[in-house]
Design goal:
It is a single chain. The protein is of the alpha+beta class and 238 residues long. The chain folds into two domains: 4-91, Glutaredoxin (3-Layer(aba) Sandwich), CATH 3.40.30.10; 108-228, Up-down Bundle (Glutathione S-transferase Yfyf (Class Pi), Chain A, domain 2). Helix content is 51%, strand content 11%. The protein has helices spanning 31-39, 51-56, 58-62, 81-91, 112-138, 140-163, 179-194, 203-213, 216-223, 225-228, and strands at residues 3-5, 14-16, 19-24, 44-49, 70-73, 76-79. It has a four-stranded mixed β-sheet. It has a two-stranded antiparallel sheet with strand order 1-2. Strand 5 and strand 6 (76-79) form a beta hairpin. The longest helix is centred in the middle third of the chain and has 27 residues, at 112-138. Mean pLDDT is 91; it is low at 1-13. Bound molecules: S-[N-(ferrocenylmethyl)carbamoylmethyl]-glutathione. S-[N-(ferrocenylmethyl)carbamoylmethyl]-glutathione binds at residues 24, 26, 28-29, 51, 54, 60, 67-69, 80-82, 234-235.
């Protein structure tokens, strides 16, 4: 749980989480949670796992499903990147907005329907991320051309979903940013590295990337050495 701390020079008590990500030296399944935390103005620690450390097997043995990322919040330890995104989304409500109908407006929607739609889009993000990871780690040289050909269809799903909410001018679901926006933003950005023209048929998604990437804290994060120097994937392919 977050600890109550007195910020330097201020009398007001605030919640300072003690977040720590344990992961390979890669953006991989962690860059979306990093973007979320950066945008919400919270700090976190990074424990980078080298190939040698992973081979020793201790981390794998302790992991709930034998894999990382591991995410710690004080004494709490979590695994599974999407569950971690959901945890952060529930922890970081948008306090500038009022509680509506007993449901706090935050990074997980403003009511149960929005939360469900956010889960639905996030499952779609995870499906495409899984295909991307299989390409990167299992079939890069032989599979890249076919993968890129299929991208117009894959990304078209997100273009239409975006269009269905506020005519594509805002976020994926509802009126406020939610955790799926960070996850999709990361997914789209890594696809632009793989195939720079992949969004040529998706004007709304192209504008969405620009809009989200220019949020001041996201922009600062994207310009940071920590982000820029971090390889997209753990095997050097991108
Ligand atoms: C791989 O896929 O980077 N975790 C991965 N691999 C190690 O022994 N459903 C969950 C989630 O959403 C999936 C977790 C995930 O959280 S991430 C993992 O733990 C294992 O299974 C992709 C990534 N891989 C880095 C990597 C693996 C092999 C080559 C590069 C680092 C260097 C060498 C070994 C580890 Fe390496």
């Amino acid at each position: 749980m977050p600890k109550l701390r007195r910020p330097a020079g201020g009398p007001v008590l605030c919640l300072m989480p003690e977040y720590c990500i344990t992961y390979f030296n890669a953006r991989g399944r962690c860059e979306a949670m990093r973007m979320l935390m950066a945008d919400q103005g919270v700090e976190w620690k990074e424990e980078i796992v080298t190939h040698d450390t992973w081979q020793k097997g201790d981390l794998k043995r302790d992991a709930a499903f034998g894999q990382i990322p591991k995410f710690q919040d004080g004494n709490l330890t979590l695994y599974q990147s999407n569950a971690i995104l959901g945890y952060l989304a529930r922890n970081h409500e948008n306090y500038t907005l009022l509680v509506k109908n007993g449901w706090t407006v935050g990074l997980y929607g403003k009511n149960p329907l929005e939360a469900t739609l956010i889960d639905m889009v996030n499952d779609g993000v995870d499906d495409l991320r899984g295909k991307y990871q299989r390409l990167i780690y299992q079939n890069y040289e032989n599979g890249k051309d076919d993968y890129i050909k299929a991208l117009a269809t894959e990304l078209g799903h997100f273009e239409r979903l975006l269009a269905s909410n506020k005519e594509g001018q805002g976020f994926m679901v509802g009126d406020e940013i939610s955790f799926v926006d960070y996850n999709l933003l990361d997914l789209l950005r890594i696809h632009l590295v793989l195939a720079p023209d992949c969004l040529s048929g998706c004007p709304l998604l192209s504008a969405y990337i620009k809009r989200l990437s220019s949020r001041p804290k996201i922009e600062a994060f994207l310009c940071s050495a920590a982000h820029k120097n971090r390889p997209i994937n753990g095997n050097g392919k991108q």
